Amino acid sequence: MLFYILSMCSTGYTLMLRFRFFNNPDLPFDDYLFNLIFICVAAAHWILLSAALLSAKRIAEYLSTWNEFQRHYHSVTRRRIQLNFKKRATILLMATIIHGIIHPLIQVLLLGTFTFSEATSYEYIIFLQGYLSVFWESQCRSIIMTARGLRESMKKELTTNPLTIRVEQYRILWQHISDVINKFSRASHIIFGCYSMCLYTIVMVSGYCLLSHLLSEREQIFSNKLGGYLVAILFHAMNLFVLCYCSHQMRREVVEFVVEDLTELKVHRLKFNQQKEVFLFLGSISMNDPRLILLGNHTIGMSTISNYVSTWAMYYLVLLQFKVTLPRDS
């Protein structure tokens, strides 16, 4: 708690100092954007804090739905959900803590204007970003494991008892999984929407600073500042990739692989009621395709990365054109 209060005070003080840079009319254009890197990282502290307060109740309600879902899952598949995340989560959290300590210190050495006081205020933000990524990955992986268990149980029953299998049970269970995904999306769309927005902005600004640094005639290409830009880009891009990749893998397991299993069934060997349930199952998947949507209208997935890259490229062209029109000393 004391560390959290100190980090809040330090972050507020850092933001105040950084905003004062904009009062300097002689500051070069690139330095304005360079300063934005620190402002974006520090502002994430307050943005994510507000988003967490708004999302806390819904996330708690979402987590409580897993109890009911586990009972339903066990009644259909006759197995328990085997997640075994303790060791994995411990390793990821330890890596997050280590990185949260090392990352700001590296930036102190690489970026000349990144002071030790700023590094102290950013440590909590780095920790928070890591924890959010671990939470997102664990929830997506939990859903992946349940969908995989549903598929394995359905395949096993089709192999042993193809004439007595109740496809309806698996269809209803899949709909329950879809409801869990939708609840997770509604519960976390604010905090993870703000989180992805912060990551997007930091990577975009850092990427432009890196590109401008490489094209600048006054800057030495291989310098500490170049390393600082790369560290900022790699860390935040890695967290952004985790959001997109986990969401993509979850949808593949819940939707695409289940559809493949159903389409590979030899429907003509099933009873009429079972055939009807298979078609209803496929219809339910097509009508209720579960997706993780952030901030109301932003679907997260691997296609998000290509959309981001194309948007960044457009902004870079505009900013570089604007920079070319400025006087040489700007």
Look at the structure and give the mean pLDDT. Answer: 79
For the largest beta sheet, what order do the strands appear in spatially? Answer: 1-2
Number of strands: 2
Tally of domains = 1
Q: Proportion of β residues?
A: under 5%
H/E series: HHHHHHHEEH
- Helical region count? 8
Instruction: Indicate the overall shape.
Output: elongated
Q: How does the helix and strand content classify structurally?
A: mainly alpha
Radius of gyration: 24 Å
Helix content bin: over 70%
The parts where pLDDT drops under 50 for at least 5 residues are none
How would a textbook summarize the main sheet? 2 strands, antiparallel
What is the end-to-end distance? 44 Å
Layout of secondary structure:
Layout: H1 2-20, H2 29-77, H3 86-110, H4 116-160, H5 167-215, H6 224-263, H7 272-287, E1 293-294, E2 298-299, H8 302-325
Antiparallel strand pairs: 1-2
Helix pairs in contact: 1-2, 1-4, 2-4, 2-5, 3-4, 3-6, 4-5, 4-6, 5-6, 5-7, 5-8, 6-8
Brief digest:
The protein has 330 residues and is mainly α. The protein has one domain (14-19, 28-325). 81% of the residues lie in helices and 1% in strands.
Task: Explain the overall architecture.
The model has no long low-confidence stretch (mean pLDDT 79). 30% of the residues are buried. Strand 1 and strand 2 form a beta hairpin. Helix content is 81%, strand content 1%. A two-stranded antiparallel ribbon has the order 1-2. InterPro entries: 7TM_chemorcpt. It comes from Cephus cinctus. Keywords: Cell membrane, Membrane, Receptor, Transducer, Transmembrane, Transmembrane helix. It holds the Pfam family 7tm_7.
